[in-house]
Write a structure and sequence with these properties.
Elements lengths: L5 H27 L11 E5 L2 E7 L14 E5 L2 E3 L1 E3 L5 E3 L10 H12 L11
Antiparallel strand pairs: 1-2, 2-3, 3-4, 5-6
């Protein structure tokens, strides 16, 4: 004989609330997914805190630029910074992973601040 307990009822309710939240976010992402070319980030090339940072459309030379970065590559002093574009349009990198930023330029600047003068070491995925 199976009777529902308060713990089981609360678990089911919490699971349903989580599913509703996921569906709501998925619906928002689906309506925002088609991006116009005007929404793509602008290229940049500047010296920030003594470091040369560059960003622009990937040309297939970088290992990860075209996959996670949505076809966009960022470099610090000529070394590729592994970048990823989140579903909400924000950007993160291996150096600045826990605080998403709005643009790749902001991401490159944040990485320079985090590096504090240290060289960017290539990401080795074996």
């Amino acid at each position: 004989m199976s009777s529902i307990t308060r713990r089981r009822a609360l678990g089911v309710a919490a699971g349903a609330a989580g599913a509703v939240a996921v569906l709501a976010r998925t619906g928002q992402a689906a309506t925002a997914a088609p991006r116009a070319s005007a929404d793509e980030p602008a290229s940049f090339d500047e010296v920030y805190q003594g470091r040369r940072i560059r960003g622009g459309p990937a040309h297939g030379g970088g290992h990860h630029g075209g996959h996670h970065g949505g076809g966009y590559t960022v470099t610090v002093d000529g070394r590729e910074l592994h970048v990823m574009r989140n579903a909400d349009g924000t950007w993160i990198s291996v150096v600045h992973h826990y605080e998403p930023v709005a643009t790749p330029r902001e991401l490159a600047r944040a990485a320079v601040r985090e590096l504090r003068g240290a060289p960017l070491v290539p990401l080795a995925l074996g």
